[in-house]
Amino acid sequence: MGFVKMKFLLSLVFCSxxxxxxxxxxxxxxxxxxxxxxxxxxxxxxIEKMEKIGSEEVNxxxxxIKFYCQPVKKGEST
Length: 78
Description:
The protein is α+β, with helices and mostly antiparallel strands. It is about 35% helix and about 35% strand. It has helices spanning about 35-55, 55-60; strands at about 5-15, 20, 25-30, 65-70. Strand 1 (about 5-15) and strand 2 form a beta hairpin.
């Protein structure tokens, strides 16, 4: 039996500290070849999304973004 290389799916979760709520996870379209690449992209995507939301809205609603990487089996889609 050969080693099966795992791939990973990044999902972002947008939350409001003001309302103590989070939206449902949003899966990103790219599938990553390693956990490292996926988690690294989570940080990059989070920063980009925060910049797009803007400081006024982030400060108003105390927005924060959580993210996680899930293993994806070959042939599995989002």
